[in-house]
Structures are given as C-alpha cells and as structure tokens.
Amino acid sequence: MRFLGIDPGIAIVGFGFVDKVGSKVVPVQYGCIQTEAHTPEEDRLFHVYEGMLQLIDKYKPDAVALEKLFFNRNVTTAMSVSQARGVLVLAAKQRNLPIGEYTPMQVKQAIVGYGKAEKKQVQEMVRMFLKLQAVPKPDDVADALAVAICHAHSYGLNSKLNEVLRK
Q1: CA 8 remoteness from chain centre
Q2: Residue 160 confidence (pLDDT) above 50
Q3: Is 67 an active-site residue?
C-alpha cells in the first residue's frame, strides 16, 4: 500500500510517499512544494493545490495523512496554514482518497516512542526507518515522511478498530 504524508504550510508543504511492504516502510518520493513570499495568498494556495494534485496523480497513493495543526501564538500564520491545509484536504478528497490526521504528539509517539520527543530525534528516526543516508531537508519534508510512516503503521489498525466499534 502507498501512503502520502503531508506537513501543511503556505510557504513550504512537505510531502512524502512511502510504500508499506509487509512490515517494512520504503520511501518512494519526497520533497516539498514551495511558494514565493510576497505573492498574493490566493495564488500561493492555488499553487499548493495544483502541485498536490499533480503529485497525487503521478504517485497514486492509497491513503493520505496530514499533521493536525497546533498553534499557540501567531494567529496570522495559523490562518494561512489552515487555508493551505484546506486545499490539501480538498485535493485528496477530489481523488477519493481516505484521509487520516495525527497530532504532532501522536506522530512523535509513533516514530520515537515518546510523544514529547525533540524534532532532531524524529528526523533521525525517519532517516533510520527509511534507511536514508541523510535527514531529508527542509524539516517539513522529514515531518511529512514521519506522518506517512505513522499512518502506514496505524492504517490497518485504525480500520480494524473501526470495524470492531461499528459492531
């Protein structure tokens, strides 16, 4: 199964495609969609949306996961990132992909085993999990891969749990 992890943003959207093969998670492609500062926000959002549709169409994931937003200070940034997140969800929904969401704490718990792990610890575990020579840059890419790994490991479990709960 192929999973797409996304770290939403307005300036940089990290993405990571991974395949789950048995118990292994294998990297397929990763990188970022970047938008230019001082560009009208609607143009930036359109660029993010179009870029994500192109990636989905090219790499054909079976499921998508996004990091839930957590902001404690800058409301302006929160609004821009929320709008970017909205167009990313729309792109996935238009391609009829199931969407998962994880808090930063859930991702850290899944990757490092500790929900309050440092960013560097998560990045290093992503590198090790995927057998990469270096930590993916920028940080948004490593974060997106962490979300993809988290979703790959919990996707089947969540589906089975939901089936049990419906009965």
Answers
A1: 7
A2: no
A3: yes
Burial state string for 89-108 with b = 16 or more CB within 10 A and e = fewer than 16: bebbeeeebeebebebebbb
Report the CATH number at residue 150. Answer: 3.30.420.10
> Is 143 annotated as catalytic?
no
Contact 151, 100 (CB under 8 A): yes
pLDDT digits (tens, 9 = 90+) for 135-146: 999 999 999 999
Domain hosting 48: range is: 2-166
Distance CA 144, CA 8 (A): 8
Tens digits of per-residue pLDDT, 32-81? Answer: 999 999 999 999 999 999 999 999 999 999 999 999 876 556 666 788 88
Amino acid 29 reads Q
Question: Catalytic annotation on 19?
Answer: no
Question: CA angle at residue 146 from 22 to 77, to 5 degrees?
Answer: 150
**Number of compact structural domains in the chain:** 1
Distance CA(19)–CA(4), nearest Å, equals: 9
Both structure tokens of 125:
């575990």
Task: Give the predicted TM-score (pTM) of the model.
Answer: 0.90
Task: Give the active site residue among 139, 140, 143, 163.
Answer: 140
